[in-house]
TrEMBL record:
Keyword check for Translocase: no
Subcellular location: Membrane
Name of the molecule in the record: Na+/solute symporter
Keyword terms of this UniProt record: Membrane, Transmembrane, Transmembrane helix, Transport
PANTHER family: NA(+):SOLUTE SYMPORTER (SSF FAMILY), SODIUM/PROLINE SYMPORTER-RELATED
Any one Gene Ontology cellular component term annotated for this protein: plasma membrane
Disordered: region residues: 528-556
GO molecular function, one term: transmembrane transporter activity
Family (UniProt): Belongs to the sodium:solute symporter (SSF) (TC 2.A.21) family.
Membrane-traversing stretches: 12-36, 85-104, 125-144, 156-179, 191-213, 242-262, 274-293, 340-368, 388-406, 418-437, 444-469, 489-514
Superkingdom of origin: Archaea
Amino acid sequence: MTVPLQAEALDISFKLVPAIIVFLMMASFLVIGYVFKVADTEGMWVAGRGIGNIENGMAIGANWMSAASYLGLAGLVALSGFYGLAFIVGWTTGYFVLLIFLAAQMRRFGKYTAPDFVGDRFNSPTARALAAFTTLLIAYVYSVGQARGMGLVGQYVFGLDIIPMIVVMMAITVGYLALSGMLGATKNMAVQYTILIVAFLAGVYVVGFSQGYSTILPQVEYGALIADLGREFSAPFVNQPFYLWIATAFSLIVGTCGLPHVLVRFYTVRSERVARWSCVWGLFFILLLYWASPAMAAFGVDLFEATTDASAYAAEGGMSGAEGDVIVVLAAQFANLPTWFVGLVAAGAMAAAIATTAGLFITASSAVAHDIYTELINPDATQRQQVLIGRGTIIGMGALVTVTAFNPPALIGELVAYAFSLAGVVLFPMFFLGLWWENTNRQGALAGMVLGLLIWITSIINSVLPSYIGALDTIAGEGGALVPIYAQYVPPIGAALIGTPVVFIVTIAVSLATPEPPLETKKMVRQCHSPEPMGQQETAADVVGDSTNGGTPADD
C-alpha cells in the first residue's frame, strides 16, 4: 500500500485542549443522532418533510461546506492561484440556477430521492437504476475527499498517522449516520454549520489582525498581499489553459444542480415556498465562508513562505498538495496563535467534512435501499427491511471510502470536482429537462444518461487511472493521459463543458424521434409549475391522481 503524502509543515503531535474540543464535538453529534434516531423510511430519507427554511438553509450550508470548501478551496487558491477562483465561481453560481429552476419544482414533484424522480418521471426502472448507480458513484468519489480532510486535520489534533485518523473519524461518522438517518443528520448539520462557520471566520479575523494583514474586513483587505504574492497567485493561472478555467467553472455550476445530496434537501421541507427560501438562506450561509476563503489562502501562503523560508509555489518544490489541503490550519499555526485556537479551526474542518459525508451517505443508502432494493428487487419490502438495508449501505460505503482515502488520486478540491462533473453530465440534464420539457421521454433519458456516464468514465480512465495502474501509466507517458487531446478538451474536472450540451442534444433528439410520454406524466410536469399550493405530504402524482378521479387537473 502506498503511504499517502503527509503535510510536513503541520505540527503533528497530541494536543490536549484541541483533542477535548474534537471529542466533545463528536460526542454531541452522536447524542443528537441518538435523540433524533428514526425507525421509518419517511424519517430516514426525507426527515418527515417537516424542516423549516432557516434550519434547512443551515443544513444546506453544512452539507455544502465540505472539506473541499473549508480546507480544499483555500488550498486550491493557494496552490493554483486565480485558477482556484473557478471553484468559487462555479460552486456559488450553481445555487442561483437551483433557486430559479429546480428547488421549488423538485419539492412539488415530491419524491424521496433523486433516482426516485428519474424513475417516476421517465417511467423506467432502467433509468432509476442508472440514476441510483450514478448517485452511489458520486457519493463515493465525493466522500473520499472528506475522509482525506478528516485524516489530515486529525493528525494535527491527535498526533497520529493519517491512516488511523481516517479510520477513527470515518468510524464515528458512519456510527451516528447509521443510527440517525436524515432527521438526525439534518439536526446535526445545523449544529455543524454553526461550528464550522464560527471556527473559519474566527480563524480569518484573528490571523489577519494578529499578523497585520487586516483590521475589520479581511475579506477585502487581503488584496494588499497580491503585490507580494503576484507570482504564486498569477503564474499558476497563466500555466493553466483558459479553457480549463471555463470548463471547471461550468462543470461545477451544472454539477451543483445535479448533486443528489443537495437536491434531496428540498424534499425535506414543508412546501415549495420553504424550498425556495431555504435555498436563499443556504446561499447566504455559503457566502459567509466563500467570501473569506481566498483571504485565508493569501494569509497562509505568505505565512508559509515567511515560516519555512521557501517558496510556496508548488512548481518550485515548495508547498506540497497535502500542505495546501490544510492551509487553513497551517495559517493559524504559523501565526503562533494559541494551540486551543488552532484546534478550534481544525475542529471546524472536521465538522465540515462530517456534515457533507452525512448527506452523501444518506443519499447513497436511500439509492440502494429505496431505489434498488425496494423499487427493483423486493417491492414488498417492509420499512424495517429498508432501514436495515440503508444502514448496511452506510457501513459498506464507509469502509470503501476509508480504504480509498489512504491513497487518493488528487487534492481534496479536485476529488470533489470529479463528482460534480459526473453529476453535471449525467443527472443535471435529466432533472432540468424532466421538469421543464414535458415531452422528454424514457428513450431520450436512457440515451442521455448512458452517454453521460460513458463521457465521464472514459475521462477518468484516460486521465486519472494511469497514476494508479502501471501498465496504463507506461502507455500514457509524460503527459499522464492515454489520449492527450481527449484529456485537453474533456478533463475529468471539467468534462461537463463538452458532455452536458451533448447529453442535452442527444436526449432531446431521441425524445423527438420516439413516442411522447404518457399524458399522466405530462400532467405531473405541469403540476410542478402550478401556482396552486400543495399539502405537506402531497406530491405531484397525488394531485394528478386526484384529478383523474374527478378533481381539478393540473393543466386546467
